[in-house]
Amino acid sequence: GPLRGDVPLPGDKSIGHRALILGALADGATVIRGLSSGEDNASTITVLRGLGVAVEREGDLVRVHGRGAEGLRAPTAPLDCGNSGSTMRMMCGVLAGRPFTSRLDGDASLRRRPMQRVVDPLQKLGARFETEDGKPPITVHGGSLRAGRIEIPVASAQLKTAVLLAGLQAKGTTTVVEPALSRDHTERMLPSFGVAVARPEPLAASVTGPARLRACEIDVPGDPSAAAFWLVAGSIVAGSRLRLRRVSLNPTRTGAIDVLRAMGARLEIASLDPIGEEPVADLTVEPAPLRATTVAGETMLRAIDELPVLAIAAAAATGVTTFADAAELRVKESDRLATMAAGLATLGVRVEELPDGLVVHGGSGLEGGEVDACGDHRIAMAFVVASLVARGPVRIRGVEAIAVSDPRFLETLERLCGGSA
Ligand code: S3P
């Protein structure tokens, strides 16, 4: 049936990680409102507690009692990052500058993900790491760091943030330069903690250390990556009308909105006052006939986490949609190009896998079938959206992974379609 009503979105996961980590490095109690109840942000809390930081949580309100970077204590056990690559990579940057040894580990999916890319730049600043052939667990031998200019080889906000977090602890100016602009939440949030960030070149960010951070209050806007599932569902399920409130519209995150608009989606965007440095808006979506498009280059980078659900939109659209420049998706929570190609093929969609993308032949509808989410939250939610328009039931193996980013997703879906999901 149609999906109608207001969608409660989790707080933005990327902003949540940063607020927690910067709060732990600051002096005083940082208050975070609207933190996601997903497992990924909870993994960051677990790791910070393992370093002796007091974190109090009542629902979506969190208080982080920071005592400066030097308030972090050597952990007595490995720090469990769960499924969260952001937690592990950003904490590498924090721990690189601490005068103790620590060990970061995670679940089976995280243990398969590349970590050499974060180790290399941090080693240039003077920290030492041990990995299992470039993968977790990671042992961090932290110590005093030298500031410097670091060029990272991939456009990755996790790496950029790790270098900036290390730079806050080094004496002098540390500059990180990336090949294309990745999400810039760290750069936007640091001034709220009293730290200036310079942007000396278009793709560079600099901090000067050692920096003292002041506790502050952070309001977390709705997660645009979580919103994307609803924007696609509301576009393809006949008779729907969904409202999403206070969604982050940081320009580094709006690729999926641009893609859906190019496909002919009926989205209304009502801008609101920004929350801190983050632009936000209320979004409304209603169904529209979607047509194929091509997604590549900087738009792909700004929609990198949304490809799974955009591939479902492409299957429901008329024509052939090509996604390119998305090789990074091979090293996410699963190989998202392979898992999406396999699942779509099972549901009767003609799809070709490219080394760096997918070609989706839309317009012939989706069948029922059994697909494997491969333990990946975004794949699981994408196939839930597919099930809403499939001609038969869709069984999703590993659907519990949804709790990583949006534990209320299925319950919300049932409510919005009047209990008939
Ligand atoms: C994130 C950065 C992106 C994104 C991930 C969250 C962040 O990863 O895919 O979901 O919060 O900085 P990369 O840094 O690997 O590109």
Structure description:
This protein is α/β, with parallel strands linked by helices and 421 residues long. The chain contains 13 helices and 22 strands. The chain has helices at residues 13-25, 39-50, 85-96, 116-124, 157-167, 185-189, 224-236, 255-262, 297-302, 307-316, 336-346, 377-387, 409-416, and strands at 4-7, 26-33, 54-58, 61-67, 79-80, 101-105, 128-132, 135-141, 149-151, 172-177, 204-209, 213-214, 217-219, 241-248, 266-271, 280-286, 294-295, 319-323, 350-354, 357-362, 369-372, 394-397. Strands 2, 3, 4, 12 and 13 form a five-stranded mixed β-sheet that branches. A four-stranded mixed β-sheet has the order 1-14-16-15, with helices on one face. Strands 5-6-8-7 form a four-stranded mixed β-sheet. A hairpin with a 2-residue loop joins strand 19 and strand 20. Helix 3 packs parallel to helix 5, helix 10 (307-316) runs parallel beside helix 11 (336-346) and helix 10 packs parallel to helix 12. The radius of gyration is 21 Å and the shape is globular. The structure holds shikimate-3-phosphate. Shikimate-3-phosphate (S3P) binds next to helix 1 and helix 5.
